[in-house]
Amino acid sequence: MAAGGMPADSASVGEFGCNEHLSGSYKGVCFSLINDGSCNSACLNESSDNISGECNFLQCWCESICPPETVAAASAPTPA
């Protein structure tokens, strides 16, 4: 789990999240379980690169798609 608290399964099939940033449009305090839906909507409406949003540390964090080269490096086998 990354700094923003995004679970790995929050990404769509074929997309991997790696860039977490504060929402630029969400206003107010963000409480998990109470405001997660509105935070997610704010993030998705901000950019087509965003794949999810979640409240963490009373702030709305957005997660965006990793560039393809980052995904390839992350999924490459490690040498034994």
UniProtKB/TrEMBL annotation:
Record's protein name: Defensin
Superkingdom of origin organism: Eukaryota
Gene3D superfamilies membership: Knottin, scorpion toxin-like
